[in-house]
Amino acid sequence: MTIQHSPAPARSDVTTPAPTGTSRRPYAVHGRVLAAGAFAWAATMAVVGIDPQGHGEEVAFSLSSGLFQVGLLFLLRTLWRTKALGEGRVARAVLRVEAVAVGLAICSTASDGLGLTDFDKVGFVILDAFWPLSMLGMFLIGIRIAIAGRWTGVTRFWPMVAESWAVVTVPTLVLLGDSVAHVVAVVHLLVGYTVLGVLVSRKTD
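Structure (tokenized):
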């Protein structure tokens, strides 16, 4: 009988486990939720328009736009964790306020989808206002990201492109009408927020 003795492995023989996909790209889920929400809303808007008519269209519009708004919360969490606006208290306060605004906008979306919104009541009017206010806030945040320069490369400026959705679409609606605004709104979501979601999902720090 032969007995073989294998030497204990030296430290150089021990391999370090390769980082998992999650550890390599810690914001993969955040970016995918944002991209999926933007794509879903754009696809729904392409079918039902920017002003849905009827209960079925309203429900579909509210579900997809609500998913987009959830994606915004994931984006804000990414901005918080990466200190994209800066490390100061003001930067963090801005993100907190914006998260509250988006949360209230989600409540407005849910109210629309459930058929509860009544614009004869002041409370619903105020709640509805958080939709445009939250989008305006995202645009200002996009500008701040570009100025702060903590995100580099294309991710430094793409948030400003994506988050200009409201400030591009609303004037287009006023100046050029529903048909043109419809196309602009859909294309801008796809080029802006959907691409931003992909970029965020690939961030490594």
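Confidence is low (pLDDT under 50) at residues 10-21. The two ends are 56 Å apart (CA to CA).
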